[in-house]
Protein: Protein DnrP
Amino acid sequence: MNAQPVCLYCQQANPTDESECRQCGMPLPAEAALAGERRLRRFGWFCVGLTIFCIVMFFWLPRSIV
Ligand SMILES: [Zn+2]
Structure:
């Protein structure tokens, strides 16, 4: 929970109590926005994994059971 908010404009890591970037003065993203972005990235990796799993299963499982 002590991850430093990174500026979206100059990638400068700022202390958590700062509301504006120390380097360029732009407002820092809120903690909720950071968490949402992280969750979105995790969901993206989940989709990639699911796609790979489906491709592997497509070739690994038998086409017909007769
Ligand atoms: Zn900045």
Observations:
- The longest helix spans residues 31-60.
- The CA atoms of residues 6 and 13 lie 4 Å apart.
- The chain has one domain: 1-65.
- Residues 1-65 form one domain.
